[in-house]
Amino acid sequence: MNVGRLVALVALTLAATRAASPQGTPALVIRVLERTTQQPLPNAEVIDLDSGARRFTNAEGEARLGWGPTGRLRLRVRQLGFQFVEQDVTKSTSQAGAGDTLVVTLGRVAYTLPEVATKETGCSPDADSVTKALSVVALSQLSMGAERYDAFRKAYPFQIRQKRRTVRFNPDGTAREVRESSEEATSKEWGERYEPGKVVDRSSRGFSVPLLFLTALADPVFWRHHCFAVHGVETLGQDRVLRLTFVPVPMVAEPDWMGTAFVDSATSMLRRVEFQIAGLRDDDVPRRLEGFTTFRSPSPFIVVPDSTVAMWWRREASTYTNGWKGPDVVQLLQLQSVTYRKATPPTDVRR
């Protein structure tokens, strides 16, 4: 089974990457630290805006960029949950030499969050100034993580193993069938692009729902087809999280995703996504589909789907007996292992 296409499952993933300078090339060492604690920031992204070259810091918070023929670098340094920094550097200003080091400190994003719901960004032009400012910060953090996922899986190609457990129920709520299987996929295969109008892919054999990775949030197509609403702070477990909702814009005629993302207010890392398919007609199959995804962090400031629970209903409510209104099918997809095939990313999480 191709786990890039999962039956009735969805997951959002955010991530980052790093790379090294070619051997023997004069390079600038960029050391990225958290401003308050002076601790190194692994997986911070360092970009030369002129050449487009990008590197990601190691466990010591260091990355290397070659000087190139101009001896000048126009840098942007960013990390999830932090304000980005832009800085021009030349050999003369950095005490020229092949072993130069530049220290960059990043300050954390400060979310000033109202305790009441706010209005949709991109769909409500009359939203107040606080809402707009908060929306820009929160959504830019999601977009940043989305942009970096592809780079992470290219720098650290991996293979995942996951377990799928599917339970089918009788109308009275008793389990009719239980199936379990194990699946493997490479990082290149894991996940599909968001395609409007194809969220539910129907065939003569039934239907499937492609994974919705966080990369969709960096895709202009997804942004054009959805409104985002930024709400106040809530408690998830023992942590404080920012609540963001997304719904299809009114022009979307086909079934599409709606849901809520819970983002850690301290790190901007995605913690949980609750999802549902909007726009299903009364005679559609499935008649209803919803669930949630939780996440784990295998490397600093990077998350991958940990477990996804999805449930869906096939029949009309009148077909159920004894007043039971539960789903026809519940499916659990649980990540069991991530194995890196080449380089291994930093694992010393400091945040």
Q: Tally of extended strands?
A: 20
* Amino-to-carboxy terminus distance: 38 Å
Query: Which architecture of the largest domain per CATH?
Result: Clam
User: C-alpha Rg, in Å?
Assistant: 22 Å
Shape verdict: elongated
Q: Report the sheet with the most strands, covering strand number, pairing sense and barrel closure.
A: 10 strands, antiparallel
What ranges have pLDDT less than 50 throughout 5 or more consecutive residues? 4-23, 94-98, 113-120
Mean pLDDT: 80
Please give the CATH class of the largest domain: Mainly Beta
Description:
By secondary structure, the protein is mainly beta. It has two domains: 5-15 and 143-340, outer membrane lipoprotein receptor (LolB), chain A, CATH 2.50.20; 27-106, Immunoglobulin-like, CATH 2.60.40. Helix content is 9%, strand content 43%. It contains two helices and 20 strands. It has helices at 129-155, 220-224; strands at residues 5-6, 27-34, 45-48, 54-56, 62-66, 72-78, 85-90, 101-106, 120-121, 158-169, 175-186, 201-203, 206-210, 226-236, 239-248, 256-264, 270-278, 288-299, 302-313, 329-340. Strands 9-14-15-16-17-18-19-20-10-11 form a ten-stranded antiparallel sheet. Strand 10 and strand 11 (175-186) form a beta hairpin. It starts with a strand and ends in an 11-residue tail after the last strand.
